[in-house]
Design goal:
- This protein has 441 residues and is an alpha+beta fold.
- The chain is built from 12 helices and 20 strands.
- It has helices spanning 41-45, 73-87, 98-109, 186-198, 202-205, 221-229, 242-249, 324-332, 336-349, 357-380, 391-399, 423-435; strands at 3-10, 13-20, 25-30, 51-56, 92-96, 117-120, 129-136, 139-140, 149-150, 156-158, 161-165, 171-175, 209-214, 233-238, 257-260, 266-274, 289-296, 311-318, 403-408, 411-416.
- The strands form 4 sheets. Strands 12-11-7-13-14-18-17-16-15 form a 9-stranded mixed sheet, with helices on both faces.
- The chain is globular, with a radius of gyration of 26 Å.
Length: 441
Amino acid sequence: MQLRLLNVAVDGGDLRVLLWGTGKRVAVAVHGITASGMSWQAVARHMPSDWTLAAPDLRGRGHSRDLPGPYGLDRHASDVAAVLRHFGGRPVLAGHSMGAYIALLARDAYPELVRRLVLVDGGLPLPVPEGIDLDATLIGSHSEKEGAAGNFKGGYGFHPILAYGDETSEALAGELRSGNAGANTAIDQIVVAEQAVEQIPGAHIENIKLLLRVDTAGASHELLDWAREGRIEFSVGYELNETVRGAILEIADGDWIPALDQDGSPRANGQVADITGRLDLSTWPAGSRVIVRRERAHPGAQLSFTDYDGHRFQAILTDQAGDIAHVERDHRGRARVEDHIRNDKDTGLRNLPFRDFQHNRVWLELVRIAHDLLVWTQRLLLTGQLAKAEPKRLRYRILHVAARLCFHARTATLRIQASWPWAHDLTIAFARLRALPAPPG
């Protein structure tokens, strides 16, 4: 089978791809850490005649050795995605050893490009980013309470910062602050972020990627420099200043690509573009880029002066590699932090009960504990709608149900009203609780 060579444009130059066969069905094969595309030659000899085998020399290796770094797995996955796009038609993607990890990352980041995945001697576990979402919220309060102060919206009270884990939904950290504290005070953000990182078990911290997500309040040099020093990726909102708006207006219609919904499907209303090349980002951590999203305003929505041609715009500053549509979709997922805060306000955060500031700090910790108890109760014990219900609904259906605790023969029995609509769900929850293994130690 004759060997042919192909160059595919990637960031920094051309990636060399080795080709065997001329069939319409395509398999893209990724080699291991010490190999090159030639390692797939023996496989190519056994490929059916209606197949084409495409084996790239990874960046920094073989005929692609002159491509610039960095040479991490994410960068290789992005290069493989460029090869998949070149062929189109959703090829089969295979990988051996380190190439299996790269193939898995490419399939996870660009599922629309891959038909099937074949992993040989590698590929698991996938390094899933652990998202840490920071946000500040206002809490109204009486003026007599210690630490209460006027806030930027004209109200009076407190302005705590909270951190939540996106994958587990846990309340990782929180700090109570006076109402006049700034939403973008970097030192406070760093304190809470460090507390959140400390919640991740030491046995796992070196094996996972961390992603810090914040709104525009997170676009501070101090916070992002801290993240870079800690090898934490970041994705923060970016102000639509005059320079950014000018760069947006220079984007040609053909440079916008569809935004994605959280399930990976194209978003009906929304497009994204990269404007990094139009901005001076030299003062931000190396590798930073700015991605903008535009979408048509919903019927009846009032446009502002930053909107143009019926579109609303949002920008993010990030150092994540990968396809811009996936990066922007992942950042948009931080909206879940607003749900967490709303739920916590329904769990006691809305009204801080004490006059003393330190006592109210303790109350904030109790709210966080209640948050985690509800999260893990839903994950481990409840199913269906109850597994997704917010605290108000759980309180009515499960937490406040009337029951009688009876004792007989040294045995305690909880008797639930049989006619209660969710008595069966509660019974199943207790059965699941008894079936859980005992914690270690």
